[in-house]
Amino acid sequence: MTQEESTVAYIPPTLAELGRVHFIGMGGAGMSAIARIMLGQGVPVSGSDAKDSIGLRELGALGATVHLGQMAGNVATADTVVVSTAIRESNPELAAARAGGLRVLHRSQALAAAMAEDIVVAVAGTHGKTTTTSMITVMLKGAGVDASFAVGGTVQGLGVNAAHGTAGVFVAEADESDASFLNYRPHIAVVTNLEADHLDHYGTAEAVFAAFEKFMDLLPAEGTLVACADDPGSAHLAAQAAAAGKRCLSYGFAEGSDIRLVPGSQDGLHSTASIELRADLLPVGAATTLMLALQVPGNHNLSNAAAAVAVALALGVDVEAALAALASFSGAARRFEAKGEGRGVAVFDDYAHHPTEVTAALRAARTVAGEHKVHVLFQPHLFSRTQEFAKEFAHALDLADTVAVLDIYPAREDPIPGVTSELITKELQKPFGYAPDSAAAVQQLTEGAVAGDIILTIGAGDVTEFGPALVEALNGPFNG
Fold first, then answer.
1. Pairing with 46, which of 36, 295, 298, 333 sits 20 to 30 Å away (CA)?
2. Distances from the Cα of 452 to the Cαs of 268, 358, 375, 376, in angstroms?
3. Helix, strand or coil, per DSSP, at residue 406
4. In this predicted model, what pLDDT tens digit does every residue of 111-129 receive, in sequence order?
């Protein structure tokens, strides 16, 4: 059993004990967030990455020492080295750190050290973590709580994915993909949903559920579990928490939710709902039915916002101030993010990489497109996930009008014999199917789109890079 999966709560080192901290792969979203936090806390930070990026340059401007390329000498002055699961033992910097007896921390352990003195709001779940963490952060800042935060994507409106605040509250996206969220010590644990995923790490769905049970058990006696009542896995976890005597706040559209959503309207990129709050959660005489209005589409985002309201209640933040702040939320990077338009066709990008997420993204796309068509450029992420969920991906993608499916983005995995994107496309009911030629797919999608339609790039790999190409093609000569 790894340390991350141990039943004993991880006790992080203090910031003083860390000394000079070096991040291997500092340009990644998770690593750059922790580096930014530590710089704000006065920790000497250095880091490396294979290629330059805006994020690296921003960290350099904040005082980090940045190395392009990875070599043993980069860790010569470090006391602590931080790695992610993606860093292999053969990495020259990690090998040098091991040989030199340096402290080596997983990024989750480093984040645990960065937030050890704060009230921690840890947001976990198979889907929706980044958006929900972003919403909570925007909500708290809008309500006057200067929280620290670390998110897996840039928060629109704040312009960064992490910052060190002054309120003694830390909002963190808790990654379950490798069980590293078990290194945190949350005071408020949010579970947006709980499904089988990351089976390359866990092996079975039962192991995924067991990890979330351990995550719930990390809550102290005075802690709060915030759980989605609409999701069977999350609701089951809430029932276990209640049976164990833990405080639990449920949210969602389901009858009996402590923070219950009543559907309102879906109009383009805007969505509304009424929120009915359990009476004893508010001061005597306070209104228990309030209005939630968002600038982002889809019931899944209304649900994410209800989770944020539950966090406000758990922290004692004024609910009306929280709702007013949520009304200003304009999204997180790569979560139904607008990339541009041409010929009246809008292009959006979404990070969805699990069938449930793809379904939510396409349902939101339907509300935006209205009576017009939705065209999708999809890139499967991981061979193991494609093998496990090929039919489910096809079923989700059939919510679109036309679909082009690129080759699998391997990320950290080696190919699995017989596992290709065609496992998905052979199950599709909609045109166009498998698209090994990405340039041809861009041309096909743009030539088939008319004013009012939308094109959505979907996936956790480099499919996001096709957004500008789609916009350029829409604004170029039209041969349709």
1. 333
2. 11, 21, 11, 15
3. coil
4. 999 999 999 999 999 888 8
Among residues 78, 105, 132, the one where a domain terminates is 105
- What the block records as the tokens of 330 is 């304009």
pLDDT digit string, tens, across residues 61-74 = 999 999 999 999 99
**Strand boundaries in 185-258, DSSP class E:** 188-191, 224-228, 247-252
Question: Distance between CA atoms of 93 and 80, rounded to whole angstroms?
Answer: 12
Q: Among the listed ranges 23-37, 65-79, 179-193, 465-479, which one has the minimum average pLDDT value?
A: 465-479
The torsion angles phi and psi of 411, rounded to 5 degrees, stand at: 50, -120
DSSP secondary structure code for residue 455 in this structure: E
For helices 129-142 and 299-315, give the axis angle rounded to 10 degrees: 50
Give the residue numbers spanning the domain of 373. Answer: 337-475
Q: Are residues 366 and 410 in the same domain?
A: yes
C-alpha to C-alpha distance for 151 and 171, rounded to whole angstroms = 8
70 and 129 part of one domain: no
Reduced to 3 states (helix: H, G, I; strand: E, B; else coil), residue 261 is strand
The answer to whether the CB of 103 falls within 8 A of the CB of 81 is yes
**How many whole angstroms separate alpha carbon 219 and alpha carbon 30?**
23
Residue 341 phi/psi, 5-degree rounding, is -155, 165
Look-up of token digits 């292009």: 347
DSSP state of 415: P
Q: Which of 317, 267, 319 is nearest to 294 (CA)?
A: 267
Catalytically active residues, by annotation: 129-130, 173
- Where a domain ends, among 294, 326, 358? 326
| Residue 163, domain CATH | 3.40.1190.10
CATH code where residue 432 lies: 3.90.190.20
Residue 131 near residue 332, CB atoms below 8 Å: yes
Whether the per-residue pLDDT at 1 is higher than 50: the answer is no
For 31-66, the pLDDT digits (tens) are 999 999 999 999 999 999 998 998 899 999 999 999
* 418 plus 302 within the same structural domain: no
Determine the angle formed by the axes of helices 299-315 and 355-369, rounding to 10 degrees: 110
* 9 in a structural domain: no
**Alpha carbon distance 375, 448 (integer Å):** 9
Residues 345 and 307 occupy one common structural domain = no
Q: Are residues 66 and 174 in the same domain?
A: no
What is the 3-state secondary structure of 226-243? EEECCCHHHHHHHHHHHH
